[in-house]
């Protein structure tokens, strides 16, 4: 963003408010009004993706104001994720990280299934507090990390990477690349990744935010050559409101 734009932003307090309300469609219209000669770059003009602080506020607000059973992605038991982890990483010594785990019961279910090295990462501290409260004393057996995946620098590696409905929020190539870098840094050769999100015939938005829809092949292509696609599934998820949402699941193995 150029200096003129920054000055314009500083002069105008409502921009940040507008930015939040638009959830990432950002200040450009306000900037253009303030200074019509200052044309935003194409990437600013078409930015759909919120910045980290806005993302965090969005998700803290979601988890701070709605019960986890009310959000569209709620699952009383993450059956397909559990089945895929058990099938492709049956050894209970495998370490598992759930990216954007939110208030999901996946890590708690894995703990009950005998897995011992479990981590849940989420941008929203509010979400992870919910997840911990749900499983009370068992929470002490899981590692909890509050981080934006696009900025996270992993301090270790895991055998299984699980992501249900997180990568799809990354609509900009630069954030997708940052996710993929974290993904590579956090996994060893032979690691399994289960990545899922809205399928091409799924919704265009999730939690009010735009998403990129994939199938297992296009996801695998976007992730790149370091991982091979070894299995795929589709799921028709039923939201608590009774709507059907089409998901893909891609199982990848790191070469
Ligand atoms: C649609 S919810 C899915 C939650 C969980 N995976 C499930 O299946 O129940 C998306 C989750 O990703 C988290 N999230 C969104 N963007 C993120 C980011 N950039 N880094 C880490 N977590 C993120 C949100 O806080 C939220 O918990």
Descriptive tags:
255 residues; alpha/beta; binds S-adenosylmethionine; Rossmann fold
Descriptive overview:
The chain is of the alpha/beta class. The chain has one domain: Rossmann fold, CATH 3.40.50. 36% of the residues lie in helices and 24% in strands. It has ten helices and nine strands. The strands form two sheets. The chain has a seven-stranded mixed beta sheet, with helices on both faces. Strand 6 and strand 7 (209-210) form a beta hairpin. The model is unreliable at 1-46 (pLDDT under 50). The chain binds S-adenosylmethionine (SAM).
Reconstruct the topology from this structure:
Elements: H1 3-11, H2 14-21, H3 28-34, H4 42-45, H5 52-65, H6 79-88, E1 95-99, H7 106-112, E2 117-122, H8 125-135, E3 142-146, E4 158-164, H9 173-185, E5 187-198, E6 205-206, E7 209-210, H10 216-223, E8 227-238, E9 244-254
Parallel strand pairs: 1-2, 1-4, 2-3, 4-5
Antiparallel strand pairs: 5-9, 6-7, 8-9
Helix pairs in contact: 5-8
Bound molecules: S-adenosylmethionine.
């Amino acid at each position: 963003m150029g200096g003129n734009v920054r000055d314009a932003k500083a002069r105008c307090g409502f921009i940040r408010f507008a930015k939040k309300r638009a959830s990432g469609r950002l200040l450009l219209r306000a900037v253009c009004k303030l200074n019509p000669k200052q044309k935003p770059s194409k990437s600013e003009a078409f930015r759909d993706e919120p910045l980290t602080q806005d993302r965090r506020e969005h998700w803290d607000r979601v988890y701070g104001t709605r019960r986890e059973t009310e959000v569209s992605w709620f699952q009383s038991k993450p059956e397909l994720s559990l089945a895929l982890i058990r099938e492709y990483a049956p050894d209970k010594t495998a370490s598992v990280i759930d990216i954007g785990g939110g208030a999901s019961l996946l890590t708690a279910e894995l703990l009950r299934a005998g897995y011992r090295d479990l981590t849940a990462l989420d941008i929203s501290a509010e979400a992870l507090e919910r997840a911990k409260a749900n499983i009370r004393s068992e929470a002490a057996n899981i590692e909890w990390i509050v981080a934006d995946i696009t900025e996270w620098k992993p301090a270790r590696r895991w055998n299984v990477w699980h992501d249900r409905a997180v990568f799809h929020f990354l609509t900009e190539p630069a954030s997708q690349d940052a996710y993929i870098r974290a993904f590579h840094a956090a996994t060893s050769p032979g690691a399994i990744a289960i990545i899922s999100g809205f399928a091409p015939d799924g919704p265009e938005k999730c939690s009010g935010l735009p998403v990129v829809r994939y199938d297992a092949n296009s996801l695998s292509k976007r992730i790149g050559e370091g991982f091979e696609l070894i299995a795929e599934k589709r799921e028709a998820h039923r939201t608590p409101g009774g709507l059907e949402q089409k998901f893909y699941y891609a199982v990848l193995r790191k070469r």
